[in-house]
Design a protein that fits this description.
It is built from 30 helices and 14 strands. Helix 8 runs antiparallel to helix 11 and helix 10 packs antiparallel against helix 11 (about 365-385). It has about 900 residues and is an alpha/beta fold. It has four domains: about 10-260, Spore Coat Polysaccharide Biosynthesis Protein SpsA, Chain A (Alpha-Beta Complex); about 265-395, no CATH class; about 415-735, no CATH class; about 760-895, no CATH class. It binds guanosine-5'-diphosphate-alpha-D-mannose (GDD) and manganese (II) ion.
């Protein structure tokens, strides 16, 4: 929509150029030529700028009399009106007019007053201080005059635009101002003061509009239906006079932004809200402290004090702060919304508390205050936008989705960030951490990216959960970025934002960006590859092949599954004639070579290790037997996509009925179907013969998300199921997000009244490791020898013990390959273990693991010296049971039976 245009030849549009114009100083006959547009210049103490501005305007190569300049002065005290009056009348080639306002000075109101006076159908607004080069005026007005666009923005933030002479803080303010407006409108320089538009558009500007950002008001009033173009300008800081932009204007801007986004603000509301909040803080903090000191524990104390403060806040807010938006009696739907916001705030605040108390060892009576602040922020925005939204001029559906997406994505990302470092590792993550302790070119069961990321993260942040997981977090952001760009290219920016929303809340996106597994970098590389594939194959851009080579290579380093996208690309090129031309050009081959080069560490590792990894993966993919498991694949898809997501995916893949039939739309469909369908088809085929892993299909949905996001607001699709689906998204998003927040709070702090169950074997390794350490110390004391600790599962036990092991006094930890059983990478790290007379502690998650393998074969008891019985330990925290762990002590090992 926002196309960049080059400086057009204005004379094409100003056809009435007079040939008889003279410069005699006498009333110019040409002044009677038709007026085409009006320039509105607001002034407040700009006396020194009037002459230079008008001189430069009159020097423009435009037909005399084709425009007028209307100055709107707000009571300048430096003689500005007099300066303007000197130019009024007919002694110049310019038509200059002056409006002197007598009301309270305001930039927006001044401009609107000038517009009301204007005689041209097209308006240009510009500053008086020469910050906006008058020479760019023809370029700015042309797109509106020739009716190709409704609004033209003089933009500093498009190629060719710039800012000269502004101090750094002004540049930052301007950038931040622009970014804040980004969720609402797609213009790069929404805070520009230099723009042109058709006059009638101004009538839609909100009655309440105030302050500096009239352009934003204009764009928002157009509800996204305007054709907007950005014309690059070079903004020069003023050389005469001073800027009138004050803190007050910036405050007004923030308020207008919130209102335009559909939120409720007024100074009264905010300050009353704050007053109520302060009483709430006191209630909350005091009760929390009292509960803590009476031994309630972090979770119970903060939840109880929260509800006490929230109940009080709600009654005061609804009766007082937001009373205009409240009918005076308790509205259940509103109360429900209030509770929803409160529960999300509560679950987030648990994370903040845990981070401060457990992670950073801040005393709890201090930690409660930042926690309350986080709660208050969530509550405030939740109240302003969701519980008590401004109903007077609600923004369009599109803007409402954007605002909601923005808030929800922020919440999801912050939730991850807060809990990242305080939730214990799952065994898989501990396994990949062990990879990073044995850095190599590649590994047996996965390519190396996950290990490299963990190595990097832990090098910076230390060997803790945060260091391990930060890589996944960053990968999640990269995935979002590329998915947004892909969806924007396929559809539009709004679709891009909604696609990111879906990625942030659907399980396959949330979980892969939270846990540090190979799927985290895989998702990022998959999204990046899709983005470059679309740019190369559909948009026909050569440079995209470079990105593709990089993304594809890095993706293969993450997980071999990414190769499926190569297959999809091949199919696309075979079907699509336009893309087929690439086969005869060098770019795809160069990209493939680059990818191969990046992938070479894996090839080298495999050469050194008898192709172990490649054999293992292809065996797993092909030789998995003939157990029909398609039903499992469906169940897993239901889990990673949610039922709503699955139905939406089916609809998105279905042939379009009344959608866009253009050539581009057809190619886009082909792209989406092939890049989703190909990988899915392979997973389907594999599931005909053996059990799929539940996260297999996760990346495959990335290519379909843009279409699903697009359909979320498509009014033209009249299938009733599509309409009902639209209604289903809201609860789906809410339930998903609640589930993650709840789960994180549960594993980190607990939820009062709900015991830990289901983790009995696989989680809480920090506490379990501590118990095993005590046992190992006891054995060492009794025997005088350091025991060997053997994890008796494929890798979960040994790797988790290694991660949570006391690094100052590490245990000697081995895999069960010691006894000839398969232990994945441990087979490589500790290839063989000779007989020993050192004591051995076998550790398992289930009792049978300490006796034989899963099939009941391979009884290990005979190779142990004086094996003891299997012991069970109940692991507790603060007196509450967490899980169990099993161990067995022997006084030595006789060596592998083959010897
Ligand atoms: N009538 C009237 N009333 N004019 C005003 C008022 C007012 O209350 N306040 C400022 N002006 C006039 C100034 O005289 C000048 O011509 C123009 O509005 C811009 O004011 P400046 O004080 O020079 O603003 P700035 O340079 O800091 O900000 C400019 O750049 C920003 C870019 O981020 C303006 O163009 C902003 O609109 C723009 O957002
Ligand atoms: Mn200025």
């Amino acid at each position: 929509m926002n196309l960049l245009i080059d400086l057009p030849d204005i004379t094409n549009f100003l056809s009435l150029r007079s040939s008889s114009s003279t410069s005699s100083g006498l009333p110019d006959p040409a002044i009677t030529s038709a007026l085409q547009f009006s320039v509105v210049v607001p002034t407040l103490n700009e006396a020194d700028n009037i002459d230079p501005l008008l001189t430069r305007l009159s020097a423009l190569d435009l037909p005399a009399g084709s425009f007028e300049v209307i100055f709107v002065d707000d009571g300048s005290s430096d003689g500005t009106p007099e300066k303007v009056r000197a130019w009024e009348g007919h002694h110049s080639r310019l038509r200059v007019r002056l409006l002197e306002r007598r009301e309270k000075p305001d930039l927006t109101r001044s401009i609107l007053a000038g517009v009301a006076l204007a005689r041209g159908d097209v308006i240009v607004v510009m500053d008086a201080d020469l910050s906006h080069p008058p020479e760019r005026l023809p370029a700015l007005v042309a797109p509106v005059l020739n009716r190709s666009h409704d609004v033209a923005v003089g933009s500093r933030y498009v190629p060719g635009g710039s800012t000269v002479g502004w101090p750094l803080h002004r540049q930052w303010l301007s950038r931040i101002g622009g970014w804040l407006a980004r969720p609402l409108c797609d213009v790069n320089d929404a805070t520009s003061g230099f723009f042109s538009f058709r006059r009638e558009l101004s009538s839609a500007i909100a009655e309440r509009a105030r302050g500096y950002k009239i352009l934003l008001e204009l764009l928002m009033a157009g509800q996204g239906k305007l054709r907007v173009v950005e014309v690059p300008i070079c903004f020069h800081d003023r050389t005469r006079g001073t800027s009138k932009l004050s803190f007050f204007h910036q405050w007004t801007y923030l308020q207008r932004l919130m209102t335009l986004a559909g939120g409720t603000v007024s100074v009264g509301t905010a300050s009353r809200f704050a007053a109520v909040g302060l009483i709430g803080v006191a209630v909350d903090a005091l009760l929390f402290q009292w509960l803590m000191s009476s031994g309630a524990g972090l979770a119970l104390a903060h939840i109880m004090s929260f509800f006490a403060a929230a109940a009080m806040n709600y009654s005061l807010n609804s009766k007082w702060s937001f009373r205009r938006h409240h009918e005076g009696y308790l509205r259940w739907d509103q109360f429900g919304r209030f509770l929803t916001v409160g529960v999300f705030a509560l679950l987030m605040r648990g994370g903040v508390l845990a981070l401060l108390v457990y992670g950073l060892h801040v005393p709890s009576f201090l930690a409660i205050f930042p926690a309350i602040a986080a709660t208050a922020a969530i509550n405030y925005f939740g109240s302003a936008f969701y519980v008590f939204p401004d109903k007077r001029n609600p923004p369009s559906l599109d803007v409402r989705w954007r605002v909601a997406s923005f808030g929800i994505v922020m919440f999801a990302v912050l939730l991850r960030l807060v809990y990242l470092g305080v939730a214990q590792l799952i065994p898989d993550e501990a396994y990949y951490w062990n990879y990073a302790q044995h850095m190599d070119l590649s590994f047996f069961d996965h390519p190396p990216m996950v290990a490299w990321l963990i190595w990097l993260g832990t090098s910076i942040f230390g060997n803790n959960e945060f260091g391990v997981r930060i890589g996944a977090f960053v990968c999640g952001l990269v995935t979002m970025g590329y998915l947004y760009a892909l969806a924007r290219n396929l559809y539009d920016k709004s679709t891009g934002i909604r696609a990111v929303l879906l990625l942030a809340v659907l399980p396959f996106g949330f979980v892969t960006a939270t846990l540090m597994t190979p799927d985290a970098p895989l998702m990022a590389a998959w999204a990046a590859t899709l983005y470059y594939m679309e740019r190369a194959l559909v948009a026909d851009q050569r440079w995209a092949w470079l990105g593709m080579g990089l993304a594809f290579g890095l993706g293969l380093l993450s997980k071999y599954t990414l190769g499926l996208l190569g297959l999809a690309a091949l199919v696309f090129v075979m079907i699509d004639p336009a893309a087929r031309r690439w086969l005869r050009r060098p770019h795809p081959y160069l990209a493939a070579s680059l990818a191969l080069l990046l992938f070479s560490p894996v090839v080298i590792w495999n050469m050194q290790h008898d192709w172990a990894s490649i054999l293992f993966q292809s065996e797993r993919a092909t030789g998995i037997g003939n157990k029909f498991s398609l039903q499992w694949l469906f169940l897993h898809i239901l889990l990673v996509l949610t039922p709503t997501g699955l139905i939406a995916a089916v609809l998105a893949l279905l042939p379009a009925r009344d959608r866009d039939p253009s050539h581009y739309a057809n190619r886009r469909r082909l792209f989406v179907i092939i890049f989703t369908g190909m990988p899915l088809a392979v997973f389907f085929a594999l599931s005909l013969f053996g059990a799929p892993k539940f996260h297999w299909t996760a990346p495959a949905w990335l290519a379909l998300l843009p279409t699903i996001a697009w359909m979320m607001v498509q009014a033209s699709d009249l299938r009733s199921i599509a309409v009902r689906l639209r209604a289903a998204w809201k609860p789906t998003i809410g339930v998903c997000l609640f589930f993650y927040a709840f789960a994180m709070h549960y594993v980190v702090l607990g939820i009062p009244g709900i015991p830990y169950a289901g983790f009995t074997e696989h989680y809480f390794w920090r506490e379990a490791t501590h118990e095993i350490e005590q046992i190992a110390k006891k054995v060492q004391r009794e025997t005088g020898q350091k025991p060997i600790v053997v994890g008796m599962s494929k890798w979960s036990v040994a790797t988790s013990l290694s991660f949570y092991d006391d690094k100052a006094e590490p245990m000697d930890i081995r895999g069960r390959n010691m006894f000839g059983q398969n232990a994945s990478m441990y087979n490589f790290w500790y290839p063989s273990e000779p007989a020993t007379s050192r004591p051995i502690i076998l550790v398992g998650m289930k009792p049978w693991q300490l006796e034989h393998d899963i099939e009941g074969n391979d009884n290990i008891t005979p190779v142990l010296v004086q094996p003891g019985t299997v012991q069970e330990v109940a692991i507790e925290r603060d007196g509450k049971p967490l899980r169990r762990v099993y161990y067995r002590i022997a006084q030595g090992y006789l060596g592998s039976r083959e010897n």
